[in-house]
Specification:
The chain is an alpha+beta fold. Helix 9 runs parallel beside helix 10 (716-726). The strands form 8 sheets. Strands 1, 2, 3, 5, 8, 10 and 11 form a 7-stranded mixed β-sheet that branches. Strands 31-30-32-37-36-38-39 form a 7-stranded mixed β-sheet. It has a 6-stranded mixed β-sheet with strand order 13-12-14-16-15-17.
Length: 817
């Protein structure tokens, strides 16, 4: 039949067409693979077609892996792995920058995807310019830097087996050229920028099951775990907490936070609930309801009697004193439970205190009994890397080791992270006070190679601000001992200071078509270099939340937080957790626990303490808010800054009476450093907080020489949320003045400085006079006029007395005549 004949004819045609269409993509893909295989090795990345209207190249080095990882992984921007969030700038004919990627021992990495967004100069020569990406020294990809498509987006699969526990080196190296002939290696058009916010690393990983030991504490509490760490502290029922439970949780929270270094720790409180879900023969916690504990690691805190219904007999049998133990959670062995217990309340306190000082991997067991803790007697202002007045410190005291750097020292960042080893971190006391012209002296021991050009230098930066330069002008090279450099004490800030030595070494012979010798570009700074502190006092104007943020002042002055009282306004779980987060943050800032600080739901009879108050604003006793910058009540007194400021400024250097003024003295942080100079309008109003959290600092109403700091919100939910936001670096570092308000999701806080200053510290009589004369110069004029008047009166009296004694006859003759 004709129809059948036509169908038989069409069928082979259809089959052939399907075959061709199906085969063509495979043939095309195979051709592309062969093309890439025959391409030069410097650029294995595939280029896509680009049009002049869209000069962007998008490369997928492993698109399938990209789709897999993106669906399940945790993604962080590259900036999260850097000290400063800013683009990576790769310059000159050759440059590199390394990012350190943390991987926790608790993770099993399945896959990882690096997504890069970069921009290169349009003056580069495409055939000779490329970016290489290395992971722990191994090449992962090479990317052509195309001037016709200067913006690139690249996805690179990173092998899971190369990502080891610890800090992995992710290195970006460029070779950049603008000509085939001789070129200037430092030409300004040789650059490539990597956007560290848009560039991301996605990790697909699983938590590993645990068999924890106490020697693993620094691994269990691991800052290298991705995400925001959280920790749950569980206390025994009833839900209404006691002061001793409050203290146990505070010490446990600080012990956990200290192991995370600078990483903020979000803390929850739960009351233990009973459950019979887990077998008593195999479970560590057969009587404990574990449903709410599966989302974070946790601690179970209480006496042996209180925990008996929740903990297995094999664990309870070991609680014969102050007890610390760590076990996997029955419901999820990837999580751990820390048991802090004892037969009495005092033994539980000692066990929790032991947790704050265990910084060595011992004992190598799951549990231990603590019979006694003997802490050393430490002076006030004790801490890591901290210096005191009139002291001499070797660089080795700041964990600096003799270090040699080679090469020109070109920087890929403004902050110069290329030479990390040439930093020392110096901690200044918060209330240091000295004359304005006082200096900190550095005596450097360093050596550099021969054949440097005379514009080679060592630039000295303090907190990323240029302070001094040392010219390396001896062509034959030289070794210096005790090379003195002075930096004004006023340039230092309270707390941590980053002192950085940035070498810029230039070859003697340069120019186009010249062979550059870079092997002689070498410099060593030795660890026996010293830093000398001047004489100073401890005296500072308060209030200042800036000092609290940077150093924990005044709560961290005395060893272990002695003299500090933390008053928790109510005993609900959210307020308690908020107070624990505040103490944990202060411990991280101080680098040791405030284990001697009092924490209580009430107020002790002895009220000579620096005070911290945490709670919903309606639960805070009105007497504790006396003198606060925001006086909260049914009718609140609220300050508002004025837009038009009163003219003010520093004294001019000239003037006919300038020679009469004294030299100025100042603390490292005086009131004017973080003061909003506008004078506020005080408005009395009927109002309330709703979604905002506030922090206030002022003179303590309980003791005139002490400080009070209040953390409050409208209710417990907002308070807990606000404290979790506050401990994050981006918000914590913004606290200043003495009144701060913020809300969830707001990037910046609102702050004011309201009310008069008061002064904290001790100071000698001459220094006190110098302080007041320098900060209030009219006192100097009044005193000077009074002194002149007194001298005039005394001189007149002495002259009259001399005249009466020696010229009495002359006066008598004058009267007769």
């Amino acid at each position: 039949m004709p129809g059948i004949s036509k169908s038989r004819t069409a069928l082979p045609l259809i089959v052939g067409l399907v075959f061709v269409l199906g085969l063509f993509p495979a043939l095309t893909a195979e051709a592309q693979r062969k093309s890439r295989a025959s391409a030069p090795s410097r650029a294995p990345a595939a280029d896509v077609a680009r049009s002049p209207e869209a000069p962007t190249q998008s490369l997928a080095l492993d698109a399938a892996a990209a789709r897999t990882v993106k669906s399940t992984g945790l993604t962080l921007p590259i900036a999260k792995f850097m000290k400063f969030s800013q683009p990576i700038k790769l310059r000159y004919i050759q440059d590199e920058f390394t990012v350190f990627v943390p991987i926790s021992e608790r993770l099993k990495v399945n896959s990882a995807l690096l997504h890069l967004q970069l921009t290169n100069s349009i003056s580069l020569l495409r055939e000779r310019s490329q970016l290489a990406v290395r992971l722990n020294g191994r090449i992962m990809a090479q990317i052509t830097l195309n001037p016709q498509a200067p913006e690139s987006r690249v996805d690179i699969r990173l092998p899971a087996e190369l990502l080891k526990p610890g800090y992995n080196r992710l290195t970006f190296t460029v070779a950049q050229h603008y000509t085939y002939k001789c070129e200037d290696p430092t030409a300004p058009e040789l650059w490539t920028d990597i956007d560290t916010v848009a560039s991301t690393l996605t990790l697909n990983a699983d938590l590993l099951p645990l068999a924890p030991r106490l020697s693993d504490m620094n691994t269990l509490f691991d800052a290298k775990l991705w995400g925001d760490p959280s920790f749950t502290i569980v206390t025994a029922p009833p839900a209404a907490m006691r002061d001793d439970q409050l203290q146990w949780g505070a010490l446990t929270a600080q012990g956990a936070a200290l192991r995370l270094n600078y990483v903020p720790l979000s803390i929850r409180h739960e009351t233990a609930a009973s459950s019979s879900r887990y077998s008593a023969s195999t479970a560590a916690f057969p009587g404990l309801d574990q449903e709410r504990l599966q989302y974070s690691d946790s601690a179970l805190v209480g006496t042996k009697a209180e925990l008996a219904q929740f903990v297995s007999p094999r664990i309870l049998d070991g609680v014969a004193g102050s007890f610390l133990g760590v076990y996997p959670l029955d419901a999820d062995p990837r999580r751990f439970v820390l048991v802090v217990s004892g037969t009495t309340a005092a033994e539980v306190t000692q066990a929790a205190r032991a947790l704050t000082v265990m910084n060595f991997p011992y004992p190598d067991t799951a549990s231990m009994l603590v019979t006694k803790i003997e802490p050393p007697e430490l002076p006030s202002y004790a801490g890591k890397n901290i210096v005191s007045e009139d002291g001499i410190y070797r660089f080795s005291k700041f964990d600096f080791r003799s270090t040699t750097v080679k090469g020109p020292g070109g920087s890929a960042l403004v902050h110069d992270e290329h030479v990390e080893s040439l930093h020392i971190e110096v901690v200044m006391p918060a209330d240091l006070f000295a004359h304005e012209n006082t200096n900190v002296d550095l005596e450097l021991h360093f050596a550099y190679g021969a054949g440097l050009r005379k514009d080679s230098v060592i630039n000295i930066y303090l907190n990323d601000r240029f302070e001094k330069a040392i010219g390396l002008t001896v062509e034959a090279g030289v070794v210096y001992h005790k090379y003195r450099v002075s930096i004004p004490l006023r340039s230092f800030q309270p707390g941590m200071n980053d002192l950085r030595f940035s070498p810029r070494l230039v070859p003697l012979i340069t120019g186009e078509c010249q062979i550059y010798n870079t092997e002689n570009l070498i410099l060593t700074i030795f660890e026996d270099s010293t830093l000398t502190m001047p004489k100073a006092s401890h005296y500072v104007a308060m209030p200042s939340l800036r000092l609290l943020v940077r150093t924990g002042f005044p709560y961290t002055v005395k060893s272990g937080g002695t003299g500090t009282l933390v008053h928790v306004a109510s005993n609900d779980s959210k307020t308690v957790a908020s107070a624990w987060m505040v103490l944990a943050k202060l411990a991280q800032r101080h680098l040791r626990a405030l284990d001697q600080a009092l924490i209580s739901f009430g107020l002790p009879q002895s009220q000579d303490h620096d005070l911290i108050v945490v709670g919903s604003i309606s639960r805070v006793q009105p007497g504790l808010l006396k003198g606060a910058p925001l006086e909260y009540a049914k009718l609140s007194r609220v300050p508002y800054s004025v837009a038009v400021e009163q003219p003010s400024g520093e004294r001019t250097a000239g003037g006919p009476l300038q020679w009469l003024l004294p030299g100025t003295s100042r603390p490292l942080e005086r009131g004017g450093a973080d003061v909003d100079p506008s004078k506020p309008v005080i408005m009395t109003q009927a109002s309330d907080l709703t979604k905002s959290t506030l922090t206030m600092q002022y003179r303590s109403p309980l003791s005139s020489g002490r400080t009070a700091t209040v953390f409050a919100a409208a209710n417990e939910d907002v308070l807990l949320q606000g404290m979790a936001e506050m401990i994050k670096p981006e918000l914590w570092e913004d606290l200043q003045g003495n009144l701060v308000v913020w809300s969830k999701g707001v990037e910046a806080v609102s702050w004011q400085k309201v009310g008069a200053d008061y002064h904290v510290g001790s100071i000698s009589a001459p220094a006190r006079m110098e302080f007041y004369f320098s900060n209030y110069p009219w006192f100097w004029f009044i005193a000077l006029i009074a002194l002149i008047a007194l001298l005039a009166v005394l001189t007149t009296r002495m002259l009259n007395r001399f005249r009466r004694r020696n010229h009495a006859k002359l006066e008598e003759m004058q009267r007769r005549t």
